[in-house]
Design a protein that fits this description.
globular; 11 strands; 237 residues; binds uridine-5'-diphosphate; alpha/beta; 39% helix
């Protein structure tokens, strides 16, 4: 079997970890995603993960109510640390060695991010979970995913979403929206396709990193796509 990508960065949004709940972490879902990571790792793929925080907090929620955006973003970044610890717990339960590296140092809780440390953990076969986004307000964890993918030398950025790829419109709202198999980074930007923010797509484009958009809710889909099957939209040069 030919494996399409040997070193990948997986973006797991907070919404994905929430499962069917309206808020927080559904441990069963976190366990399932950990299982999918385990399966993909068994193919010999090196995997690192960026987790979002939207299931707990988004900075704009503070800003939209007249509060300070920067403080809101700090709260959002802290939320990603909670999710990262949950995912590490799910991975550890099934015997996967995983480490959380935070862009905002909190040494009593997890290790701090540096590229060198991240690469060493990856070389040792650990799943590296990046928390704290980029460590800066006014960014998103999608941008953090593109940034960490570049820093790790990832050959693909897998973006787990609610649906199985990029559509011409939101398929949940527009039933006859069409799904794309392949797009270029420029097409995603020019068509204004809302799959990742502009900063994230531009960073991936600049570093020639393909973005694979797939359904995070489809059990086993991550490894099916890595092995050449499954359903996804591939965004590449
Ligand atoms: N955030 C930030 N800088 C970053 C990444 C995230 O300030 O580099 C904050 C921002 O407030 C964001 C929140 O953390 O709303 C949660 O991240 P995001 O919305 O990207 O999570 P997701 O939508 O993937 O769950």
């Amino acid at each position: 079997m030919t494996i399409r990508f040997k070193r990948v960065l997986l973006k797991v949004s907070g919404e994905a970890l929430m499962g069917g709940q309206g808020f927080g972490i559904d441990v069963a879902v976190a366990d399932r995603i950990a299982g999918d990571i385990h399966e993909a790792k068994a193919l010999g793929v090196e995997i690192s993960v960026v987790v979002g925080g939207g299931n707990i907090f988004r900075g704009v929620a503070v800003a939209s109510k007249g509060g300070d955006r920067v403080t809101g973003d700090h709260m959002g970044m802290l939320a990603t640390v909670i999710n990262a610890l949950a995912l590490r717990t799910s991975l550890t339960k099934i015997g996967i060695d995983a480490v959380v590296l935070s862009a905002i140092p909190m040494p009593e809780i997890c290790e701090s991010f540096s590229q060198l440390v991240a690469l060493k953990h990856a070389e040792a076969g650990r799943v590296v979970i990046f928390a704290g986004g980029t460590g800066n307000p006014f960014f998103t964890t999608d941008s953090a995913a593109a940034l960490r993918a570049a820093e790790m030398g990832a050959t693909a950025l897998f973006k787990g979403t609610q649906v199985d790829g990029i559509y011409s419109a939101d398929p949940k709202l527009v039933p006859d929206a069409t799904r794309f198999d392949r797009l270029t980074h420029d097409e995603v930007l020019n068509k204004g396709l809302a799959v990742m923010d502009v900063t994230a797509v531009a960073l991936a484009r600049e570093n020639h990193i393909p973005i694979v958009v797939f359904s995070i809710h489809e059990k086993g889909e991550f490894s099916r796509i890595l092995s050449g099957g499954g359903r996804s939209t591939i965004v590449s040069d």
